Amino acid sequence: MRSISILGATGSIGASTLDLVRREKGNWRVVALTANGNCAELARLAREFSAEIAVIADESRLAELRDALSGSDIEAAGGESALVEAAARSADITIAAIVGCAGLAPTMAAIEQGGIVGLANKEALVSAGEVMTAAVDRSKATLLPVDSEHNAIFQCLAGNDIGHVRSITLTASGGPFRDWSVEQLKNATPAQAVKHPNWDMGAKISVDSATMMNKGLELIEASHLFPVGLDRLRIVVHPQSIVHSMVEYRDGSTLAQLGPSDMRVPIASALAWPQRMDTPCEPLDLAAIGALTFRETDEQRFPATRLAREAAQAGGAAPTVLNAANEIAVAAFLDGRIAFTRIAAHVEEVLSCYAPDAPATLDEVIAIDAEARTRAKAGLLTESAPLD
Ligand code: NDP
User: Fold this and answer.
1) What is the pLDDT averaged over residues 341-351?
2) Is the CB of 14 under 6 A from ligand 1?
3) What mean pLDDT, rounded, does the chain reach?
4) Euclidean distance between CA atoms 227 and 130, whole angstroms
5) 80, 97, 115: which is closest to 33 by C-alpha?
6) Distance 96 CA to ligand 1 centre (A)
7) What is the mean pLDDT of residues 99-124?
8) How distant is the alpha carbon of residue 219 from its chain centre?
9) Which of 58, 66, 181, 290 could bridge to 37 as Cys pair (CB 3.0-4.6 Å)?
10) Are 328 and 345 in contact (CB under 8 A)?
11) In ligand 1, which atom is closest to the CA atom of 42?
C-alpha cells in the first residue's frame, strides 16, 4: 500500500487523480486532501477516502469543515500554514494540483519532505524556478511532471541521455480561439474562453490555453525540468491534442508520446512510476482520428508565448512577475473587467515596469509575487478603456 496526498483535491486534476485512486482503493492510503473554499466537496472526499487530514485554505470555512467531518476520525485544519503543514506530512507521493502561485508554499513543503511530487501546478515552478529545483536537489525529492506535455517529454527521455537531445517540441492545441482574427479576439467572452475544444480543465488554465500563456508557462516549466537550453525548446500547434510532445535526438530520431486528451493518462503515469497502471481511458483509434496536423504558432495574435520566452531569457524574477501579472489579468478577464486581448498586454506592461533582482529564497519569491500582484491590480485600476 502506498500513501498519497492531493493538494487541490476538489479541482479538475484532483478529481482525475481521485478517480484513479478510487479504482485501486485497496492500494492507497490517503494522507492529506486540501481545497480552497469548497468545504462540502472536501469533506465528502475526505470521508470517502478516509483521509488522515482535510485542510481548507480559507480559514473562515474551518468551522464548516469541522461540522461536515464531525463523527469521523479525520482531522480538520484551516489556513495557509495548515496547508503547508499538511503538505509536509510524509507521503509516498503528493500530487501538487492547487491552481496558481497559491500552491507554491505547499508544493515546496511537499518537496522538502523528500518523497515523490507529481507536479501539475506549473505556476509554482514558473514562479520559483531555481529556488524550487534547488530544493528538489537538496531534499532528494523526485519531481514527476503531471502536465501532459512535460509528462510526454519525461516519457520520451526515459532511457536516453539528455545530452543527445537536439530539440524538444511542446505541442499546443491552440485553444478555442486558434482560428479567430484579432478583431474577434477583442470580443471573446469568459464563457467562450473556458470552453476548451479538447480538454476539460479548471477556468484559469482554460483561459491560459486560450491566450496561449499556458504554452508560455509550459516553456518556462520545461526549461527547468529539461535543461537543454531555451534555444532547443519549441512550440508547435497541434489541434488534435493527440501528440502530447516530442523529443528529437542528434541522430534524427524523434520520439513522441501519443494518447487521448484525458489527464488521467499522465496522472496515472506519475502515480505508477516507474511501473504502469490501468486507466479507464479509451485506447487511441488513429484510423478514426484520421489526420494529425501541425502548424506554427502565431505570435501576432497570441503574444503570450513571446512574453514567456522573453521572461525565460531574461531569467531572474521575470518569470515570477509574468506569472503573477497573468494571474491577476486572467481573474480580471473572468470577472468581465478587461477584454481578452488586454490579458497579454497587461502582463507586458507589468513586466516593463517591474524588474526586481532574482529571488534566492522562497520568501523572496513570495514577496516578488505579492508586489507584482499589487502593481498588476493598480495597473488595472488605471486602465482608461478596459473593455476596448
Ligand atoms: P481547478 O480550478 O479545477 O482546481 C484548483 C484546486 O486548487 C481546487 O482544489 C481549489 O480549491 C484549489 N485552490 C484554488 N485556490 C486556492 C488557494 N488560494 N489556496 C489553496 N487551494 C486553492 O484547477 P485545475 O485542476 O484545472 O488545475 C490545477 C493545476 O494543474 C493548475 O496549476 C493547472 O495549470 C495545472 N494543470 C491542469 C490541467 C487540467 O487538465 N486541469 C492540465 C495540466 C496542468 P476549491 O475547489 O475549494 O476552489
Assistant:
1) 97
2) yes
3) 96
4) 11
5) 97
6) 9
7) 98
8) 12
9) 58
10) no
11) 47
* pLDDT tens-digit map of 188-220: 999 999 998 888 899 999 999 999 999 999 999
Using the atom order of ligand 1, give the atom closest to the CA of residue 121. 32
Within the chain, which residue ranges are assigned CATH 3.40.50.720? Answer: 2-145
Residue with CA closest to ligand 1 atom 19: 36
For residue 122, CA distances in Å to 35, 64, 69, 128, 147 come to 17, 30, 31, 10, 8
Whether 61 lines ligand 1, by a CB cut-off of 6 Å, is no
Q: Domain 151-260+289-380 is in which class?
A: mainly alpha
Distance (angstroms) between ligand 1 centre and the Cα of 267 equals: 14
Atom of ligand 1 nearest to the CA of 100: 32
Give the residue carrying C-alpha cell 501532459.
148
Q: Which atom of ligand 1 is nearest to the CA of 263?
A: 40
Q: Bridge partners of 96?
A: 7, 119
CATH class belonging to 2-145: alpha beta
The whole-angstrom separation of Cα 302 and Cα 142 is 34
What would the mean pLDDT of 347-369 be, rounded to a whole number?
A: 98
Ligand 1 mean position to 13 CA, how many Å?
A: 7
CA 205 to ligand 1 center in whole angstroms: 8
- Residue 267 predicted with pLDDT over 90: yes
- pLDDT above 70: percentage of residues in the chain: 98
Question: Which of 6, 7, 99 best tests ligand 1's pocket when mutated (most atoms within 8 Å of CB)?
Answer: 99
Measured from the Cβ of residue 166, the count of other Cβ atoms closer than 10 Å reads 14
Neighbours of 300 (CB within 10 A): 8
Which set of grid coordinates corresponds to residue 341?
Answer: 486581448
Ligand 1 geometric centre to CA of 259 (Å): 22
How confident is the model at residue 30, as a pLDDT?
98
> Which pLDDT score, from 0 to 100, does residue 387 have?
45
